[in-house]
């Protein structure tokens, strides 16, 4: 907000001030927008062809029969979530730097909730339609879902992907209390990363549910890695920042393999190679590092900004509404598997564009102004 005009009387002789320097324009990291969309598409590929469950009902058979070869690759798409967390660590550290707590809170709430609320209502309404065979949650549970706290309250979820939002909320709270509130600087951010890394390891060893909830040992390395990469973005010669990134990668790949690898089992078609899991996690870190170091500054196409804006609403709606779309196109209209897959992705991107244009474009700045009092 600009400062109010001075109320002092004007001096009798006015000396012209020297010409002001143009404000330094901070370039938008459009490659990061593109990486966001790639991560979202990875998750969509996993949900449509890399796992069983409700999507198998939509296809009419297991996705490994719909995509005999590709399903093995789609199974790695779930790692898009870990890449999201690395990006989130980078972006939240960047957006919280030099920002007061109220402004940080307003920016996060106004960014997360408008499309989320509409997605909750939309999915609930679609699942209540008679032709749709998927069961809608109860009205009470749907109302609780509007708070984004359904996961810790043990309430049925309207959106399957909302478990990641619960992880994001906890990260925002930790970062806000430990970094934004006292004021972000390099020393405080480094201390935050170090303490969180050690505390998360203690939580894993203690096996105490409260510590697990607060410190998120499984996901902390990815958020911390993103924070470290933002420090690298500020100073590529920062050895401590590189150390944070390296340690977070070492721990993060461990959790990814531990949670996502299992021995070959005929009951699970989503068998993944541990080396491939490590490779995908590594590529996620490398991609964000390349952006942090400025190696992808030439990737500055304007359409990537739109792609980044579509990522969040796409992520919200793609899974559950994707089930309905796949069933309508594949079983209803008889379209082949790959055509159905591509058209479902396109339909969810179109819906995301509508949410971005007609919900986020006006609701986000409005909510931000109301929360900041400006």
Folded structure, characterized:
With 374 residues, the protein is mainly alpha-helical. It contains 16 helices and no strands. It has helices at 30-49, 54-59, 63-66, 70-74, 80-96, 101-127, 139-145, 150-153, 162-180, 186-206, 209-215, 220-234, 239-260, 274-292, 303-332, 337-372. The model is unreliable at 1-25 (pLDDT under 50).
What attributes characterize this protein structure?
374 residues, globular, disordered N terminus
Biggest sheet character: none
Number of helices: 16
Number of β-strand runs? 0
* Relative strand content: under 5%
Class computed from helices, strands and strand pairing: mainly alpha
User: Which spans have pLDDT < 50 for at least 5 consecutive residues?
Assistant: 1-25
Tell me the overall shape: globular
Distance between the termini: 8 Å
- The percentage helix is 55-70%
State the order of secondary-structure elements, H for helix, E for strand: HHHHHHHHHHHHHHHH
Average pLDDT reading:
91
Radius of gyration: 23 Å
């Amino acid at each position: 907000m600009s400062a109010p005009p001075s109320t002092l009387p004007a001096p009798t002789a006015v000396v012209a001030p020297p010409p002001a320097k143009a404000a330094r324009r901070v370039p938008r990291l459009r490659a990061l927008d593109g990486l966001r969309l790639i991560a979202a598409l990875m998750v969509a590929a996993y949900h449509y062809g890399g796992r069983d469950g409700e999507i198998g009902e939509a296809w009419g058979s297991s996705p490994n029969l719909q995509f005999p070869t590709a399903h093995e690759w789609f199974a790695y798409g779930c790692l898009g979530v870990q890449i999201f967390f690395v990006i989130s660590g980078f972006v939240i550290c960047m957006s919280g730097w030099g920002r007061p707590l109220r402004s940080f809170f307003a920016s996060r709430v106004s960014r997360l909730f408008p499309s989320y609320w509409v997605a909750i209502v939309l999915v609930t309404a679609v699942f209540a339609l008679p032709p749709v065979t998927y069961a809608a949650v109860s009205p009470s549970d749907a109302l609780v879902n509007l708070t984004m706290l359904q996961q810790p309250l043990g309430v049925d979820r309207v959106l399957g992907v909302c478990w990641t939002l619960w992880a994001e909320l906890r990260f925002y709270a930790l970062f806000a209390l430990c970094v934004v509130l006292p004021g972000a600087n390099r020393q405080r951010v480094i201390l935050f990363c170090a303490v969180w890394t050690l505390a998360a390891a203690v939580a894993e060893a203690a096996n105490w549910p409260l510590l697990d909830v607060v410190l998120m040992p499984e996901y902390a390395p990815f958020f911390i890695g993103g924070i470290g990469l933002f420090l690298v973005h500020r100073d590529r010669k920062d050895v401590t920042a590189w150390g944070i990134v390296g340690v977070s990668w070492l721990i993060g790949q461990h959790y990814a393999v531990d949670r996502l690898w299992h021995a070959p089992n005929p009951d699970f078609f989503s068998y993944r190679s541990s080396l491939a899991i490590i490779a995908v996690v590594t590529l996620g870190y490398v991609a964000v590092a390349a952006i942090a170091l400025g190696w992808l500054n030439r990737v500055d196409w304007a359409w990537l900004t739109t792609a980044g804006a579509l990522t969040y609403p796409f992520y919200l709606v793609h899974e559950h509404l994707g089930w309905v779309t796949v069933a309508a196109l594949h079983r209803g209209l008889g379209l082949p598997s790959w055509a159905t897959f591509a058209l479902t992705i396109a339909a969810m991107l179109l819906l995301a564009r509508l949410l971005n244009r007609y919900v986020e474009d006006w609701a986000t700045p409005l909510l931000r102004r109301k929360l900041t009092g400006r």
